[in-house]
Amino acid sequence: MNKFLTTMMVVLSLPLAAVAQTPAWNELKGELKAALESKGDPVRGEKAFDSCVGCHRKDASGRTSGAYPRLSGQHATVLIKQIADIRAGRRSNPKMEPYLDDHALTAFEIADLAIYVQGLPISSENGKGPGTGVAAGRQIYDRDCASCHGGKGEGNAEKFYPMVAAQHYNYLLRELKFIRDGDRRNANPDMVKAIKPYSTADLEALADYMAQLAPPKK
Ligand code: HEC
Ligand code: HEC
Fold first, then answer.
1. What pLDDT, on the 0 to 100 scale, is given for residue 210?
2. Cβ contact 72:122 at 8 Å
3. CB-ligand 1 contact for 162 (6 Å cutoff)
4. What angle do CA 184, 156, 192 make, to 5 degrees?
5. Ligand 2 touching residue 87 (CB < 6 A)
6. Which of 18, 103, 116, 196 is deepest in the core (most CB within 10 A)?
7. Nearest CA residue ID for atom 29, ligand 1
8. pLDDT of residue 97
9. What is the rounded CA–CA span in Å between residue 185 and residue 114?
């Protein structure tokens, strides 16, 4: 086993639930709770990830086109919540559903996958935006988004706030529109409120800004 995995297993040997909170939009029950309380085994997770690489790639960097998001380095709590939400139908993802259905994955395997993927290095070769919206995007981001997603886009594992730095531009833009327009139904209501007033041009600027943020140090 390489040094990286060994370190991860030590760092992550606390049950994830120990750090998790219970906001109303994210009620901890059922398999979400079971997966968060499970320790997760990155070695098993690496094997289980075989069924995901066709879309998310072996290094979990996704596609620069934004068709498939980067998963590497994302907080395990966020990965678990998103998978549980997709399985529960709160976030629709028809392409991925067959790979995530109850028969394909148990709650424990979700935890294994999340621990493994969280530990993968983050590529800075992500899909970038046009660059013209970075300055405007930064202004909006610092005012309305940094309180949750962090000054550097690092997110917050304990609160299930995703890391948004160095994610693919087109994916960020698509999710912002889904969240603003109510198509992504699992979002924190405070975030929906924060995003509602923005025009599509504003969302493009925000995505442009977030995509060029450096991968957060872990
Ligand atoms: C057929 C292609 C495909 C396969 C296979 C696939 N995914 Fe996905 N996945 C997607 C797409 C597309 C999205 C983005 C959906 C959207 O835009 O909302 C996604 C999103 C996700 C997200 C949410 C990411 C975020 O930032 O919120 C997670 C977590 C995820 N996938 C995990 C997995 C895991 C784990 C597997 C293997 C068990 C897997 N996926 C297999 C296509 C796939
Ligand atoms: C109150 C906290 C909060 C605020 C404020 C907030 N967000 Fe979020 N954001 C979240 C949470 C929680 C999620 C995950 C939602 C879910 O479970 O689907 C999220 C998801 C996202 C995603 C999707 C990430 C992914 O990997 O799929 C993007 C992009 C995003 N936020 C950008 C923004 C931007 C830009 C702003 C400011 C206009 C903002 N957020 C304001 C909490 C917040």
1. 98
2. yes
3. yes
4. 30
5. no
6. 116
7. 79
8. 75
9. 22
In this prediction, residue 99 carries a pLDDT of 78
Report in angstroms the alpha-carbon separations of 124 from 5, 52, 156, 192, 195.
21, 21, 20, 28, 26
pLDDT digits (tens, 9 = 90+) for 19-56: 444 345 567 778 888 899 998 999 999 999 999 999 99
115 CB near ligand 1 (under 6 Å): no
Give the whole-angstrom CA distance, residue 10 versus residue 138: 36
- Size of the chain, expressed as the number of residues it contains: 218
Residue 207 CA from chain centroid, whole number: 15
Q: Which residue has the tokens 């060994």?
A: 6
- pLDDT per residue as tens digits for the range 104-145: 788 899 999 999 999 999 999 999 999 999 999 999 999 999
Token couple for 113: 């996958």
Which ligand is the nearest neighbour of the Cα of 171? Answer: 1
